[in-house]
C-alpha cells in the first residue's frame, strides 16, 4: 500500500533534520503513539549526511486475532534512515527484527521550509503478508504511523521552541 504523511514543524527544515540526527532526541519520544522508548542502535555522520538506526517496539494492546499469529514481544524493528543534509531529504527502510517475511516498508521524505516553519512530506510503500487481512493490517499500521508522527512533531516543536 502506498501512503503519504505530512508533518508540520514550527522551525526550519535544517533544525528539524539536525534534531532527527541527534541521539539525544530519541529518549524524548518514549511513549509517543503506541511505541515504547526508542533505542539508538547506530549513528554515522559526515559533512553532508547522517545515518540513524533506531529500534522501536510496539507496546499497545493487540486484538486476540492478532495474538494468534504474532507475539507482542517480537514486534520490534529498526528504522534505518539516511538524512541528506544538502537536499533536505531522507530515505528510510524498516527492518523487522522478527516476521521479516511478513512486512516490507520503505519511505522517502522531503523537508520544505515554509514562512512559519517547515513541512515534511513522507511518501512510502508498506506491504504486509497476511491471509485475508493484509489490507486491514496495512491501514492500521499507517494510521498508527500518522498518530506517532503527529506526536513526534509536537515533541520536536517543544524541544526546539
Please characterize this protein's 3D structure.
The chain has 161 residues and is of the alpha+beta class. The protein has a single domain, classed as START domain (Alpha-D-Glucose-1,6-Bisphosphate, Chain A, domain 4), CATH 3.30.530.20. Helix content is 24%, strand content 40%. The protein is globular.
Taken together, the total number of domains comes to 1
Helical proportion, percent range? 10-25%
Q: Please give the CATH architecture.
A: 2-Layer Sandwich
Shape: globular
- Arithmetic mean of pLDDT: 90
- For this structure, what is the CATH class? Alpha Beta
Order of helices and strands: EHEEHEEEEH
CATH superfamily heading: START domain
So how many helices? Answer: 3
Major β-sheet profile: 7 strands, antiparallel
Short description:
By secondary structure, the chain is an alpha+beta fold.
Q: Which features does this protein show?
A:
24% helix, Alpha-D-Glucose-1,6-Bisphosphate, Chain A, domain 4, 7-stranded antiparallel sheet, 161 residues, alpha+beta, globular, 3 helices
Secondary structure elements and pairings:
Blueprint: E1 2-9, H1 13-20, E2 39-45, E3 49-57, H2 64-67, E4 76-84, E5 89-96, E6 103-114, E7 117-128, H3 134-160
Antiparallel strand pairs: 1-7, 2-3, 3-4, 4-5, 5-6, 6-7
